[in-house]
Amino acid sequence: MKKQNVRDLIFEAGMNSFHGMGFNACSVQDITSAAGVPKGSFYNHFDSKEALGAEIVDRYRENSKLAVLLADQSVAPGRRLQEYFTALNQRYGKSQFARGCLLGNFGMELSDQSELIREHTAAAFAQWSSELESVVAEAQAAGEMPDELSAAELASFLLNSWEGAVMRAKIDKSRTPLDIFMKFALAPYL
Amino acid sequence: MKKQNVRDLIFEAGMNSFHGMGFNACSVQDITSAAGVPKGSFYNHFDSKEALGAEIVDRYRENSKLAVLLADQSVAPGRRLQEYFTALNQRYGKSQFARGCLLGNFGMELSDQSELIREHTAAAFAQWSSELESVVAEAQAAGEMPDELSAAELASFLLNSWEGAVMRAKIDKSRTPLDIFMKFALAPYL
Fold first, then answer.
1. Interface test with B, best of A160, A170, A180 (most B CBs within 10 A)
2. Which one of A15, A182, B40, B58 counts the least CB within 10 Å of its CB?
3. How would you classify residue A28: left for phi > 0, otherwise alpha for psi between -120 and 50, otherwise beta?
4. What are B's interface residues with A at a Cβ cutoff of 8 A?
5. Which of B113, B122, B180 has the CB atom closest to A172's CB atom?
């Protein structure tokens, strides 16, 4: 096995295991077993489980395939926001509401435990919020949304409310919280 | 030590440790050490760490001292909702945004791991949502909120959005997400 391949195998297995089990319930041994590599190889590639966790947070956000929907200038900004959250809603529905959002999970479990992972998670949410803010500002400029509101604050409210809906869907094992979000979050502004 | 006292000590230490550390990062030994009781005494009082966790979820909800604000008929229902969330906001601000909401934390960490704790957490959120729903329905009956909306859905949206704000405050170590919630959540309806 090439070195790079082992690192990738560990990384993918780590993302999958952390997302499914949470951080603390998942050992380095769980990750290397899932990756099919020797346990000792972990530390050739990552300084610690925590370092792997921080790197996974960064990649999880970068990998978001849905961000292109927000940037698609061919669609009116208000409609882009609706289509984006509709696409997120459909994605979460596929997994029986298990797992939830890795960023939210890590944030809740680790923010008082790992300053490294907290910082990476906060940066990922800030980036996500800022992508939404751009579209809100575009919608305001286009006269689609009221422009007396702060685009940054509204974007943050939408994102945090979405995360709360994902949390409740995970707990209730039901799509209802996601559907309620779709019905209430944007309606007062669009 | 009386038996009842030992049980209470373990219970209180468990609530505190789970809230601060999360469930999986906290061992029975951590709890009995914090309680100042012998490790073996744990199993005289609780079947398992999971059983203690489920009982703590129930008590955490029952203990909410702020629920009286929602039931105070001497205050107009719309104002009651505002005062309730203001009080929640102040409470979370006191702890430097550490810990967050125990129900949200357990829900995120354990919903795919412990069906027992998931069920208790879902029931606690359902109860909380229903308390908010009653006040929304009162506000609708009083003409303070639009009555074409489902009170149950709006209550759920408010609660889930609040939980998302608490999560983000815990991650950002900032009261901004809570303040943004206060600014945006009720404004379109009151």
1. A160
2. B40
3. alpha
4. 20-22, 24-25, 98-100, 104-105, 107-109, 111-113, 118, 121-122, 125, 153-154, 156-157, 159-165, 167-168, 170-173, 176-177, 180-181, 183-185, 188
5. B122
Query: Token pair of A108, please?
Result: 């809740």
Distance from the Cα of B4 to chain A's closest Cα (Å) equals 31
Query: How many other CB atoms are found less than 10 A from the CB of residue A11?
Result: 18
Token pair 């001497």 is found at B74
Q: Are A166 and A101 in contact (CB under 8 A)?
A: yes
**B17-47: pLDDT as tens digits:** 999 999 999 999 999 999 999 999 999 999 9
Among B105, B113, B124, B106, residue whose Cα is nearest residue B167: B105
Which tens digits make up the pLDDT trace of A44-98? 999 999 999 999 999 998 877 888 999 999 999 999 999 999 999 998 877 778 8
Nearest to B154 among A105, A176, A184 (CB): A184
The distance of Cα B15 from the centroid of its chain, to the nearest Å, equals 12
The verdict on ipTM greater than 0.90 is yes
CA atoms within 13 A on the CB side of B167: 36
Go through the domains of chain A in sequence order and give each one's CATH number. Answer: 3-46 (1.10.10.60), 60-184 (1.10.357.10)
Contact B171, B97 (CB under 8 A): no
Task: Count Cβ neighbours within 10 Å for each residue of B94-130 and write b for 16 or more, e otherwise.
Answer: eeebebbbbbbbbbbbbbbebeebbebbbebbeebbe
Chain B residues near residue A170 by CB distance under 8 angstroms = 107-108, 111-112
Q: How far is residue B49's CA from residue B17's CA, in Å, rounded to a whole number?
A: 12
